[in-house]
Design brief:
The protein has one helix spanning 9-22, and strands spanning 33-39, 50-55, 72-77, 83-86, 107-110, 113-117, 133-140, 145-149, 157-169, 172-183, 194-203, 206-213, 232-235, 246-251. 5% of the residues lie in helices and 38% in strands. Strand 9 and strand 10 form a beta hairpin. It is globular, with a radius of gyration of 19 Å.
Length: 257
Amino acid sequence: MVLSSTPGPLTILGLFLVAMALYSPVATTATPVVKNSVKVADKISKSSSLLKILYPQGAGESGMLECERWSVCSRVDTYSRPWVERLCTCKNGQLCSTSLHPDDGHTVVDRTRQYKVCEKVDTLPTCRFFKDITWTHITSADNKFQQRVHCKCPENSTTYISGHDVKTTSQGVLYYYHFSCSPESGMRCRRKEPCRLFTVRKRYPVEEVTTSTLCRCPPKTTCPSHHTDPFVLSDFDPNRPKDGTRTYSGFCGTSDL
């Protein structure tokens, strides 16, 4: 699938923020089934870390749907304390990776998230900036969610929502949100201009944080990597979504006193 127009930086950022309220697989108000501090089996993950594993509402490992081709079977969040969201099961008894390592051969990386697929990712083509759709989020009216990968973004790139549509199928009405690749910003931050945006969504028992780099800090300064770091301000919004989503702006700073 190809998009012909090239959006400007402000358009990309606006679409990105709107996407945060639309595409999340946890847009439903139902609380997902949670396995707290579950040690991932060695056959599934090479990591010995204790991870929180979230499952779709009313499902466990044995109650999930089978993955379609190039569907994401697990989403691994590495922003702070790692946690895993299981989405579907691989066919023929194959185990879906929940490894924290992005080089397991089944991982597509997007900032602090790792998308695990059943297939080998070395067969995926490389996306073209602004044109190809890297993945699609598909949500049904009853809040069932799946994510399908089409190509891999080049290195030093970020993703943004590039389009959406609605289709009526034998499964009912499905909502499609398409994401494309964009080069990371190479612009130098101006004085008092935020360098990074954090969108924080509270999910029991975890926090889902999306980051977006806006510009590069001048020499001898750094951009905060976490929304609780110094030089980060909470953005007051009287029309904040009811799900408790908050945004934070990070500014270039120095550790020198």
